[in-house]
């Protein structure tokens, strides 16, 4: 069993009405924490030095109670706390998210849990989402680069208006990114390739071609991405769903 230690408190927020509200919300998060969740974070590669140990379900429930607030989300993010930043993604207003905010948050991504949550419940619903996929997929930092591919995967899952061409144009980014050996990058690339390939029959054909090339690559990471994607995208379950 890992040694017990009190999690570091989030950075203090600015004084005033908004500051008082944030401190109240952070206190609510701390009351929802349990040691089992905190100790279990390390097994999933999540940092616990700025965390209380609050299960995701409880964070989501608190977000529903608080309602949407762009201002509260910004203040919660600034605390630096793990759960506070998770909560910020759930309470922010996608239509009010700015390109500058997206760049700031992306630059501060330091773990896959925050990356995936922010992209899955907030950024992919922003009108600026598509403009970030390309630049972020070329970033040097591991989690910023992961964000580019996770954002593409989330758009494939949630953007019902975009046509096949928009996703097809991103496949070269995926193919280049597949050679990145870093664990959280290659897993993000894999997710993006599989989600794009599940979107339509046309995109499935294109993604399968990419997967076959990657599966034969001399690069270990690319082969791993290609083989996993090929297995899923040519599976009977996916094939049957796309035909239907």
Describe the fold and architecture.
- This protein is 66% helix and 0% strand.
- It has helices at 17-31, 35-40, 56-66, 70-79, 82-91, 99-107, 112-121, 129-137, 142-158, 164-168, 171-177, 183-197, 201-215, 220-233, 236-243.
- With 244 residues, it is an all-alpha fold.
- Helix 5 (82-91) runs parallel beside helix 7 and helix 9 packs parallel to helix 12.
- It contains 15 helices and no strands.
- It has two domains: 9-92, no CATH class; 110-244, Serine Threonine Protein Phosphatase 5, Tetratricopeptide repeat, CATH 1.25.40.
Structural descriptors:
mainly alpha; 15 helices
Provide a compact summary of the structure.
With 244 residues, the protein is an all-alpha fold. It has helices at 17-31, 35-40, 56-66, 70-79, 82-91, 99-107, 112-121, 129-137, 142-158, 164-168, 171-177, 183-197, 201-215, 220-233, 236-243. Helix 8 packs antiparallel against helix 9 (142-158) and helix 12 (183-197) packs antiparallel against helix 13 (201-215).
Task: Note the topology.
Blueprint: H1 17-31, H2 35-40, H3 56-66, H4 70-79, H5 82-91, H6 99-107, H7 112-121, H8 129-137, H9 142-158, H10 164-168, H11 171-177, H12 183-197, H13 201-215, H14 220-233, H15 236-243
Helix pairs in contact: 1-4, 3-5, 4-5, 5-7, 7-9, 8-9, 9-12, 11-12, 12-13, 12-14, 13-14
According to DSSP, the number of beta strands is 0
In terms of DSSP E residues, the strand content is under 5%
Task: Tell me the CATH architecture of the largest domain.
Answer: Alpha Horseshoe
Q: What is the helix/strand order?
A: HHHHHHHHHHHHHHH
Main beta-sheet strand count, sense and barrel state: none
Number of helices: 15
Measured on Cα atoms, how large is the radius of gyration?
Answer: 19 Å
Shape: globular
